[in-house]
Amino acid sequence: MLVLNKSKSMYNSKIIGLGYYVPDNVVTNDDLSKIMDTNDAWIQERTGIQQRHWIPEGSEDTSAVMGAKAARIAIKRAGLTAKDIDFIVFATLSPDYFFPGCGVQIQDMLEMDTVGAIDIRNQCSGFVYAISTADQYIKTGMYKNVLVIGAEFHSNGLDKTTRGRGVSIIFGDGAGAAVLTREEDTSKGILSTHLHSQGKYADKLIVASPSIRNWVPELLANPEDISYFPYMDGQFVFKNAIVRFSEVIKEGLDKNNLSVTDIDMLIPHQANLRIAQFIQRKFGLRDDQVFNNIMTFGNTTAASIIIALTEAWEKGKIKENDTVVLAAFGSGFTWGSVIIKW
Ligand code: COA
Fold first, then answer.
1. What is the CA angle 83-24-95, rounded to 5?
2. pLDDT-based confidence at 221, cuts 50/70/90?
């Protein structure tokens, strides 16, 4: 009879390389007030955002191109080469093509072996879902080094008129990448991941078209139909976000017998500074226990957590043995958390 020695066949995964890339082009709130009826005070008061990076016209950047730029940095910092990567997980809601996904473009752009690649479509929770997916492959021993990317090219898909101001002021372009590798010590690395969804509220934050049931000819025939722009019921999203963020952080802590005081660094998805501040207050966390950078990058959806994690790490805010918590909520609705012993 085959007896599986669980402790020998299961691993943890750990992050050994981080990188991010954003386009140089900075768009301030004042810049936006020149193209729509908005102002710096309104945007800062409601969201905390001061500026975002938007890909300028004529740039070569796309979600895949930015993802490749971030990935090169992460792989180098991991002390690996692209040839060492066994699998690619790419999270985005703004892929270069309807199909194929961005993951396969990374395989080509980085001149990797013909390794597998998948795209994750979980919007603001995309990076948490992507990390969780990579973690499972490593845990089972199937792959050793997995490249995880989150990237978004929002700016070309936003309604940049007053009509779209409730949504378009929030989003920014950018990409981040992490290299995960096998960790034999199961008390370290990614301890657990927690994922949820609630499709009932799909229409509360959605880009409904073009879709196969409302394809381009139908859209062109109906100029009133602007369902190709993101729609968001902002207040409904806000209310659900604060509840789900809290629940899923608590779920992750409980699972690992940790308490709020054990958190060395919480990196919430950068949806809105007011959401992050609410969570911080609710858990009674000090300023040095939470990292936010939505002020300078806006909400970069699947890229936001990985850009923030990279920036926090670059600034020396994450150290060996720290308990790091990642948490996200977004369209779907989807939400999740990741508990890491760094
Ligand atoms: N500039 C100026 N005024 C604006 C504006 C802008 N960019 N956008 C909306 N307004 C106006 C509205 O037209 C409305 O005016 P009215 O009262 O005359 O009708 C007023 O401001 C309030 O609009 P409302 O949509 O109720 O604002 P809000 O307080 O809910 O703030 C969000 C809007 C989007 C900032 C907020 O709901 C939010 O952050 N929600 C969560 C979104 C989120 O996190 N999304 C990411 C998904 S994870």
1. 55
2. very high
